[in-house]
Amino acid sequence: MKIFRSLLIAVAALGSAGKAYAGTATATMNVTARVTNSCTISAAALAFPDYDPAAALADTGTSTLSVTCTLGSTATISLDQGAQPASGSTAAAPLRQMASGTDRLGYSITQDAAHLVPWGGGLASESYFGLGVTTSVTVYGTIAAKQVVRAGNFADVVTATIAF
Question: N or C terminus: fewer CB in 10 A for the chain?
């Protein structure tokens, strides 16, 4: 039995022995990839609280843009004038209005909490530096006090664009 066992182990060892080679050769393989600048943007709704035309103070609200850009890339974020801008509105100085039927309720969107820097297009766009991860950019809105409007549900649509 010991002979059979020894023979079995020897056959197993012989079967697992590697092949013999006469020599080896090597080569290098270059691996490349090109990373391009890329950005995505999405927007949450800017919903103001109920507006009281008789109130002495403006209504304010905030929203967020979710932005993702390639690490190290630069971009500009612009907001258009909305679906029904007021007469005299421009990309750099937008005069936005929400509508309820034929009635209009003026509002502004700014880049800062103090509501001093308008947010539009061209010179009124915001610069952005890509971090490679999704970041939130705050949008600030204001409805000026004492506007003469009827009661109703007012709405507008503003398009956010990121150029990179």
Answer: N
Task: Give Dmax (Cα) for the chain.
Answer: 109
Cβ-contact 96, 158 below 8 angstroms: yes
d(CA 143, CA 98): 10
On the CB side of 28, CA atoms within 13 Å amount to 3
Are 106 and 86 spatial neighbours (Cβ–Cβ below 8 Å)?
A: yes
Q: Is the pLDDT of residue 11 over 60?
A: no
Closest CA to 109 of 144, 150, 145: 144
**pLDDT (0 to 100) of residue 57:** 96
Q: Set out the domains of the chain in order of their start, with CATH numbers.
A: 39-163 (2.60.40.1090)
The answer to whether 156 and 89 are in contact (CB under 8 A) is no
Residues 142, 117: Cα–Cα separation, whole Å: 12
Q: What is the mean pLDDT of residues 5-21?
A: 60
The whole-angstrom separation of Cα 53 and Cα 57 is 9
